[in-house]
Design brief:
Distance between the termini: 15 Å
Shape: globular
Strand content: 25-35%
Number of strands: 5
Strand order of the largest sheet: 2-1-5
Bound molecules: zinc ion
Low-confidence stretches: none
Number of helices: 2
Mean pLDDT: 86
Radius of gyration: 12 Å
Number of domains: 1
Order of helices and strands: EEHEEEH
């Protein structure tokens, strides 16, 4: 486990059909009625869809990338 990696879930916002990085702690909290992405985009929980990403939010990518060391930026768990 790499503590430098922020725990985020990329979920599609139905508002802009773009995948934003939402903190996993928010997504896993059933009491939350909305999620707030790294870029400050917020969306009601019922409008955040968990599907395979196609269009990443540029702001979230930059904010997420700043937390990830260069040599690990393009690695995935898959
Ligand atoms: Zn975003």
């Amino acid at each position: 486990m790499n503590l430098l990696l922020p725990a985020v879930d990329w979920l599609m916002s139905a508002y802009d059909a773009t995948w934003h990085a939402f903190p996993t702690a928010q997504v896993n909290d059933p009491a939350r009625t909305f999620y707030q992405a790294l870029c400050d985009h917020s969306v009601p929980a019922r409008h955040a869809e968990r599907t395979v990403p196609r269009v990443f939010c540029p702001a979230c990518l930059v904010l997420y990338g700043t937390h990830v060391p260069d040599e690990q930026r393009w690695q995935t768990d898959g």
